[in-house]
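Thread: "does anyone have the structure for this chain?"

Original post by V.I.:
We have the sequence but no experimental structure in hand. Need at least a predicted one for the grant figures.
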Amino acid sequence: MGRKPKDLSGQKFGMLTVKDMTKKRDGRGSVYWHCVCDCGNEVDVPAARLIQGTCHSCGCLQKKNRQKIAQRRHLVDGTCVEVLEKRKSRRDNMSGFRGVFKLKDCDKYRVDIGFKGKRYYVGLFDNYDEAVQARLAAENMIHNGFIQKWKEWNEKEKEDSEWGKKHPFVFDVKKEDGEIRVRV
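Reply from O.Q.:
Generated one for you, tokens below.
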């Protein structure tokens, strides 16, 4: 028989106040404790998550933080300006440059770019440097072009809100005749 779990009753962890121990255990044998959140919701949480500080609320804190972040961002024409401005490489990127993928069956590099939830094929290249340059050119045309045009539109809209209502911001990307084109 295992050791007796530490009694957490009455203790407070973040927004959670521990009420009593349940009969449930997680995969590692950690006891679940029944807790009441400051918001009034009740939730069962493993002792390990409470003690290690990885659980602070019933989930309401995370929801509130997401809303705060969303309020600070500028969602324009289906695109978040801040995400485009502060792009980072993905952790799962194997080539070392975002949007550049080395094909397994040949020594070529495929280049794609994403915008407004769509992926656009930029091209297939024989060497890595050409692929990176093509990706940078696509980013400049699409991502940086979007940011620049939005900033210009935003300045005009600040000067004259009626102009902004009559001229909504639109930045469309289309693939025509094998080329990516931008329409503003």
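V.I.: this helps a lot. The radius of gyration is 25 Å.
O.Q.: and The chain has a mean pLDDT of 87.
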